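In the laboratory, one determines a bound structure by crystallizing the protein with its ligand and collecting diffraction data. In a computational setting the workflow is compressed into a single prediction: the sequence and the ligand go in, and a structural description comes out. We illustrate the idea with fe (ii) ion.
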Amino acid sequence: MQYEARKFNLPSLDGISDESVKQHIGLYEGYVKNFNAIASKLVEYAADTEKNAHALSELIRRKSFEFDGMRLHEYYFEQFEDKPTALNPDSALGRAMSAEYKTYFQEYFKAIGNMRGPGWAILYWDPVGKQFQAGFVGEQHHGHFVTLPIVLAMDVWEHCFILDYGAAGKGKYLDAFFKNLNWGVVERRFDAVAK
Ligand SMILES: [Fe+2]
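The predicted complex, in structure-token form:
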């Protein structure tokens, strides 16, 4: 089955230009296209694994890079859909976040996002340990917390901000990310996994 690129119902963002969003959506669509291409090639190469051993191993390594790029961008863009919405402190997510992070979550998460190198700051919920795990994922596939569902995904690759703020503009972009975030989306993800 081929994956299809999703369309997002995005408002004009504050501090992230329409042109930047347009180019970023183009990159997202590239991940979908590349994943589909790899999946098709693998079917072909699987017919003779001995002859295609090198190509097969290279594509298998790249497969999760493309898939994770596709899926993480879907999580990313849907967080801006409709309109910016504050975190409801009385929601299940609001209560769990204030129990674990008091009032410092945003600064902490931005500090993770400010780490060097291309990647993502990601907040997971661990249904077993009943706690959040916040981490930095290199590129889009190195350092995930296996099995944990993602509740918040913040892209911190340079392509998110270089057009609007230049190579040194990550801090301004991180502020804009939270300014535009629809916390309602994050609350719904949390409700679905924190039963
Ligand atoms: Fe991206």
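The pocket of fe (ii) ion is lined by residues 24, 27, 73, 155, 157, 159-160 (CB under 6 Å). Keep in mind that any predicted model is a hypothesis to be tested, not a measurement.
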